[in-house]
Design goal:
Blueprint (H helix, E strand, L loop, with lengths): L30 E5 L4 H10 L5 E5 L9 H14 L11 E5 L8 H12 L5 E4 L5 H18 L6 E6 L2 H5 L1 H5 L5 E6 L1 H8 L14 E3 L13 E3 L4 H14 L2 E3 L9 H14 L4 E3 L2 H10 L4 H14 L6 E3 L2 E3 L1 H20 L1 H8 L6
Parallel strand pairs: 1-2, 1-10, 2-3, 3-4, 4-5, 5-6, 6-9
Antiparallel strand pairs: 7-8, 11-12
This protein binds glyoxylic acid and magnesium ion (MG).
Length: 361
């Protein structure tokens, strides 16, 4: 077998389709807020949410009843056409969708209808239950054909959900499968079922998954601290590496316990610290948490700017508060500073907050 030449990855997969992007734009996507386009109560709220959340995602897959699949697809088309500022090149809030899984009776019509009707407004298509690069190749070619037919000038991007054991095994190949790949999210609920984990929750920890302190004075029944462990650490870390390697973006996924805002924040922060750029939001409450957690804190930026100022041309090492800083810590600080700059472009409150930070000498 001969390999595809690297330059051919940037040739459109259908005559007349837009050229693939060479770099995925770093658009802020701290919260991807899911809504059901067949639910009139949720749809009514969409116009006023534009500008308050980085991404609105019209969900067509799980959580939408079979009887409502067509209504959800059509509802999304109407919302995209009618809502000012939502999606497309000039949108202040990105518009994404999650289509039905590729083996379902709805996936093909989801793609045909959405690209044909609102391809110029949609930014990213989330594909669930991706098993391997072949799923991305399938979507890649169909999108090119549909884009050509619709006369689109901007390629649609693809986001995969990591929610099958085989998908996790193939995550690097999935991340590298197409120049359309924008990012990958963890799908803890389907992944738990597919792996036959013995949990019944949507994301988060489990009190049974723990490590216990050694017995004190040999008393195994005495009081011992237990530490709950993170069920998702391995998968998120693997996903982050695959995304970084491919130059695309990793995300946490759903956290189902809407009332437990404290544990939600913990899970989101773990993902942020490990390298994720955002998460899903299943309730307006989670948008505020995600926006806060996935934006660098004032303390982070204060410290990062101090290191940048102290390091000059970036070579050598300096001591700040008894800690050694060198090229590698400078690079970490630049990740935070650059993220703050990107977020300042779209979030006036953050812009003001970051602007007031004074850097100590
Ligand atoms: C998301 O789709 C999940 O299955 O967790
Ligand atoms: Mg799922």
């Amino acid at each position: 077998m001969s390999f595809k030449s690297p330059k051919d990855f940037f040739v459109p997969l259908a005559v007349g389709a837009p050229a693939p992007l060479r770099e995925i734009p770093a658009r802020p996507s701290r919260a991807i807020h899911f809504f059901d386009p067949s639910n009139p109560k949720m749809v009514d709220k969409i116009p006023q949410m534009v500008g308050t959340v980085d991404v609105l995602l019209g969900n067509l897959e799980d959580a939408i009843k079979a009887d409502n699949k067509v209504a959800a697809r059509e509802g999304l088309v109407s919302i995209a056409k009618a809502t000012e500022g939502l999606g497309g090149q000039s949108g202040t809030t990105q518009l994404w969708t999650r289509v039905n899984s590729l083996d379902s009776p709805w996936a093909l019509d989801d793609l045909i209808t959405l690209v044909t009707e609102i391809g110029d407004r949609l930014d990213v298509i989330m594909v669930p239950k991706v098993q391997g690069p072949e799923d991305i190749h399938y979507v890649d070619r169909i999108l090119a054909q549909l884009e050509a037919r619709a006369g689109l000038t901007r390629p649609l991007l693809v986001h995969a959900i990591l929610e099958t054991a085989r998908g996790v095994a193939n995550v690097e190949a999935i991340a590298l499968a197409s120049p359309r790949m924008q990012g990958i999210s963890l799908g803890p609920a389907d992944l738990a079922a597919d792996r036959k984990m013995k949990t019944t929750r949507v994301g988060g920890g489990h009190p049974g998954y723990l490590v216990r302190q050694d017995p004190v004075d040999g008393d195994i029944h005495g009081a011992r601290t237990v530490f709950q462990q993170d069920l998702w650490h391995y998968t998120i870390a693997k996903m982050v590496d695959a995304c970084a390697e491919a130059g695309i973006y990793p995300y946490y996924g759903p956290f189902g316990d809407i009332t437990d805002v404290v544990a939600t924040e913990d899970q989101f922060r773990n993902a942020f610290l490990l390298g994720c750029v955002g998460t899903w939001s299943l309730h307006p409450k989670q948008i505020e948490i995600a926006n806060r957690v996935f934006s660098p804190s004032v303390e982070d930026i204060q410290h990062a700017r101090r290191v940048v100022a102290a390091m000059g041309d970036g070579t050598g090492a300096v001591m700040l508060d008894g800690k050694m800083e060198d090229d590698a810590s400078l690079k970490q600080c630049l990740v935070l500073v650059e993220l703050a700059e990107e977020l300042s472009k779209i979030d006036p409150q953050l812009k003001e907050l970051y602007a007031t930070i004074e850097v100590e000498a």
